[in-house]
Backbone:
């Protein structure tokens, strides 16, 4: 029998640990000059260094060091005056040298924290996630295992290797264990990754595109009985590539662990792979027998010893912290708390801000993104940023409504058209013929037709029964295919029938 | 012509007595005549060498300014990658591989107009002291073809002694330039670590490997040293400082007032009598030339060999992991449903020789969790102690000296099955690599008991390489006066030569 989440949290306390891998957006790779552009033809962005050719040597990309220090500073870490690269030795075909250059016992940044806020039924709650380390490493190539049932190397007929990704600079941000989140563990995990992503984006050090793999999260979860001291056995879930999945993965693992523990079974320490379609994880590599990576200091590189003055310069260059920015925007736009939380939850802050910067009224901009556009996004199961509509489109639509060229109803059709790929707002307006009928003689003609069709209704209105106007206005709107401004129609109709325009529709 | 020094060959080209093409052809002819017996070369690039030579000749005749070694032929150790030229590092696993790029050393040689004749034989991945560990058969010492030419760079030194090339490139991880130089009666220099770029040098032990010049005279070595040395942005461990003025030092050969420290621990028990006597005579000659001879003690050198055989195998176990049949080199067992893992295993089983496997296993073990501190960690501490010994010794001497090797060249096969005896051959050369300083070996005579060359080692502090050249040139000049002609004029003629 499947446990409910409530059953789980009634008995167990979850403990989180999050490892986030970030691909830096440097132009060149970590240890050579090859391009880091995404999506190139396989093996076109390689050289003797990132292919691990005999004799080739790595040289550290200074920009990557700078980005790592910026990340450390933004996460309140200490920057090590002296750090080193090590070799992590293991054989795998997508790793050209059969060792990965990584930082091991001497990472570049240590001991930081990130405060995250989540919106709960008990109000806004704040959690401090402590950061253990931030370290640099190189990415591996990509393997495509062809044939076989599992898509894994075992059982595949053959494998294709693309080394374009090999050597792309990665930064790994590792939290200390995060206890005390209680039932909010899934939300805290999601909020941590979201806020971390916002910080990384504000620093400009990564594209932070989870769907492209430039930000990847491994979620470690363990359970212990409430009140227990000792930590439970953890599982490490990989392949979690959206914010929503972070939350689902943590929740799913909590339930899976609790089911095992309740049955008196033990949790196996292992890597698990998140399945986007089911929201469940499947077993990966067992970590019961710790693999021996035979780490030792990378002899081909000299230690990283950033100058203190440089670090201070970087500290001064840090952009506005996302939490401060959020507070500032909330105030500037006068957004109530709940709605601010909704905006953050929908991951709409950036896109709304962009729309506002293009001249749109903040409330209107927020209304469109969180209203109609979010609705369409939810229906199609994608994030709003993935839709074809841009802040520029929305800003134009808001402007057209303000000018009276579009009614709200028409504007919704424009939004729908833009999302459907019919072109810019203007193109949708032109092709669908969505112009407000503002020609008064055309409106008057339509009103005359409505009165002729429903003479009794007109008579009632003449006799002072104003509510009857609705039926005639509806007829006019239908006649004009919804392209008239209903308020204006009402005005004209009542004046025509000699009645005051007293009650708003 | 081919018995002249590189410097003399260059002068002859400047005077128009010979062209680079003719000079190159003479050496190619010599290789054809004698290399079947010596087996110094794994690959001879006849067409490429002649094309390079013609290009230098054309440049020279059009009045272009060319470097001091332009047009002079050179033999390249097969551990150095050269674009398009088969490069094996003496291993079967790289059979047929043609690198897609030039090492920095090769780029510099090409820019300087040095003509690369081909690739020389070596112990597989530079692991060995006799060149017997080459997957392509041993090289023979031109002084006595039944003897080893030293290693790992036996091919480079033998090519010089056999007059197949006047210059060669070697690499030295624990003595692979100096020991072959010693046993073949030639000059070999291991520059300060970081003095010559390692980019394109197939790594054995990254923290110890260093490429350097091999020649028949101290001046030739200095000329070649200046061509290949200097900072390289492709090597993070390359030193960003001006190249020491080695040519100037080699030309002056002035040792007046210099303090020469004899390392007490690198002379005595275990050193062949003839090696010791030639070494002592050389010290007297240096004293006569105006140097002051002092004794220094380096007590931690005793542990150098043991520490070396932890650090070098540890690094090699990682460096050689890339040879997995996936991207280059041979591929074994890729049939039917063979997995990538089994192809990797079979390829490494077939592709690596015994000594390489021995060191990979040793290094893998030394780096394993639970053993790391006791082995790799302790070895690194010994390394620090050796550096401290050197620092102390250099406080009382400008250079340190010792015999390069305990013995003269041994017989092929004599130590092939006794790795420890083989390792002991490098006892005097290893401390230099452990400390990252410079070392030179030059011939100081023949041992009376076997008539084979003896090497004299000079060690200088980091980035003070010029001191070795001053002392080396002074000793070379004094010995030449004593002998009347270069030591190599006494080498027995090889069959097939004139």
Residues:
């Amino acid at each position: 029998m499947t446990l409910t989440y409530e059953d789980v949290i009634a008995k167990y306390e979850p403990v989180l640990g999050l490892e986030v891998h970030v691909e830096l957006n440097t132009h060149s790779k970590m240890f050579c000059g090859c391009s880091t552009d995404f999506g190139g033809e396989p093996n076109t962005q390689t050289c003797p260094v990132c292919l691990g050719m005999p004799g080739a040597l790595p040289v550290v990309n200074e920009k990557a060091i700078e980005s790592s220090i910026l990340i450390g500073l933004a996460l309140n870490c200490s920057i090590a005056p002296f750090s080193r690269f090590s070799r992590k030795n293991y054989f795998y075909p997508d790793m050209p040298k059969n060792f990965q250059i990584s930082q091991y016992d001497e990472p570049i940044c240590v001991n930081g924290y990130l405060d995250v806020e989540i919106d709960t039924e008990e109000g806004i709650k704040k959690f401090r996630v402590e950061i253990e380390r931030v370290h640099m490493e190189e990415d591996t190539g990509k393997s495509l295992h062809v044939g076989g049932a599992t898509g894994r190397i075992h059982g595949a007929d053959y494998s294709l290797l693309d080394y374009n990704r090999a050597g792309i600079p990665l930064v790994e941000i590792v939290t200390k264990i995060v206890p005390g989140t209680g039932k909010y563990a899934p939300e805290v995990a999601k909020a941590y990754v979201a806020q971390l992503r916002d910080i990384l984006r504000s620093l400009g050090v990564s594209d932070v595109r989870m769907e492209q793999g430039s930000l990847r999260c491994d979620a470690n979860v363990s359970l212990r009985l409430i009140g227990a001291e000792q930590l439970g056995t953890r599982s490490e879930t990989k392949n979690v590539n959206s914010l929503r999945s972070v939350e689902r993965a943590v929740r799913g693992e909590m339930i899976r662990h609790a089911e095992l523990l309740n049955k008196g079974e033990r949790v196996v320490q292992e890597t698990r792979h998140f399945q986007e379609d089911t929201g469940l994880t499947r077993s990966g590599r067992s970590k019961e027998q710790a693999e021996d990576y035979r780490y030792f200091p990378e002899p081909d590189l000299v230690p990283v010893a950033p100058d203190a003055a440089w670090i201070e310069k970087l500290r001064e260059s840090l952009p506005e912290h996302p939490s401060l920015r959020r507070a500032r925007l909330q105030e500037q736009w006068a957004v109530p708390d709940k709605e601010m939380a909704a905006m953050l939850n929908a991951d709409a802050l950036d896109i709304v801000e962009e729309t506002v910067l293009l001249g749109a009224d903040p409330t209107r901009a927020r209304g469109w993104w969180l209203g109609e556009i979010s609705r369409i996004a939810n229906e199609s199961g994608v994030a709003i940023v993935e839709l074809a509509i841009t802040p520029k489109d929305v800003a134009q639509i808001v402007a057209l409504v303000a000018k009276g060229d579009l009614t709200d109803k028409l504007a919704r059709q424009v939004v729908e058209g833009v999302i459907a790929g019919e072109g810019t707002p203007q193109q949708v307006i032109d092709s669908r013929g969505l112009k407000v009928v503002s020609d008064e003689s055309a409106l008057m003609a339509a009103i005359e037709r409505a009165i002729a069709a429903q003479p009794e209704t007109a008579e009632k209105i003449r006799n002072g029964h104003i509510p009857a106007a609705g039926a005639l206005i509806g007829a006019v709107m239908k006649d004009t295919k919804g392209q008239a401004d209903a308020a204006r129609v009402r005005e004209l109709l009542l004046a025509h029938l000699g009645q005051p325009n007293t009650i708003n529709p | 012509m081919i018995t002249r020094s590189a410097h003399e060959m260059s002068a002859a080209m400047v005077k128009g007595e010979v062209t680079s093409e003719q000079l190159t052809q003479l050496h190619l002819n010599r290789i054809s005549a004698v290399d079947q017996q010596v087996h110094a070369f794994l690959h001879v690039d006849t067409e490429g060498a002649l094309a390079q030579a013609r290009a230098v000749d054309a440049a020279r005749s059009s009045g272009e300014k060319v470097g001091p070694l332009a047009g002079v032929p050179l033999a390249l150790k097969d551990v150095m990658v050269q674009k398009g030229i088969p490069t094996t590092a003496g291993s079967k696993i790289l059979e047929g591989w043609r690198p897609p790029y030039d090492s920095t050393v090769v780029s510099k040689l090409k820019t300087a107009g040095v003509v690369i004749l081909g690739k020389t034989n070596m112990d597989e991945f530079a692991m060995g002291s006799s060149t017997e560990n080459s997957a392509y058969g041993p090289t023979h010492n031109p002084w006595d073809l039944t003897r080893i030419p030293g290693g790992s760079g036996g091919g480079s030194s033998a090519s010089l002694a056999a007059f197949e090339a006047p210059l060669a490139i070697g690499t030295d991880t624990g003595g692979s330039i100096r020991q072959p130089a010693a046993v073949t009666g030639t000059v070999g220099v291991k520059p300060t670590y970081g003095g010559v770029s390692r980019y394109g040098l197939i790594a054995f032990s990254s923290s110890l490997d260093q490429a350097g010049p091999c020649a028949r005279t101290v001046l030739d070595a200095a000329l070649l040293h200046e061509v290949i040395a200097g900072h390289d942005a492709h090597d993070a461990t390359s030193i960003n400082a001006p190249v020491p003025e080695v040519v100037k030092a080699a030309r002056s050969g002035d040792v007046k007032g210099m303090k020469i420290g004899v390392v007490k621990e690198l002379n005595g028990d275990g050193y062949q009598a003839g090696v010791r006597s030639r070494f002592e005579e050389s010290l007297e000659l240096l004293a006569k030339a105006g140097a002051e001879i002092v004794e220094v003690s380096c007590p931690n050198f005793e542990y150098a060999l043991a520490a070396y055989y932890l650090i070098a195998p540890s690094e090699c176990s990682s460096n050689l992991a890339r040879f997995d049949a996936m991207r280059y080199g041979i591929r074994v067992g890729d049939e039917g449903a063979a997995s990538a893992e089994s192809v990797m295993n079979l390829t490494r089983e077939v592709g690596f020789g015994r000594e390489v496997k021995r060191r990979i296993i040793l290094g893998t073990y030394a780096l394993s969790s639970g053993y790391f501190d006791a082995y790799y960690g302790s070895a690194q501490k010994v390394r620090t102690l050796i550096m401290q010994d050197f620092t102390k010794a250099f406080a009382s001497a400008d250079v340190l000296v010792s015999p390069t090797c305990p013995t003269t060249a041994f017989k092929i096969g004599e130590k092939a099955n006794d790795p420890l005896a083989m390792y002991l051959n490098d006892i005097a050369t290893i401390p230099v690599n452990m400390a990252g300083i410079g070392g030179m070996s030059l011939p100081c005579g023949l041992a009376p008991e076997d008539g084979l060359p003896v090497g004299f080692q000079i060690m200088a502090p980091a980035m003070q390489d010029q001191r070795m050249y001053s002392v080396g040139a002074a000793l070379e000049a004094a010995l030449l006066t004593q002998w009347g002609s270069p030591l190599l004029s006494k080498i027995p003629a090889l069959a097939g030569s004139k």
About this structure: Chain A touches chain B at residues 48, 51-60, 87, 89, 91, 93, 96-99, 153-154, 159, 161, 290, 292, 294-296, 299-302 (CB under 8 Å). Chain A has three domains: 5-315, 322-431, 441-496.
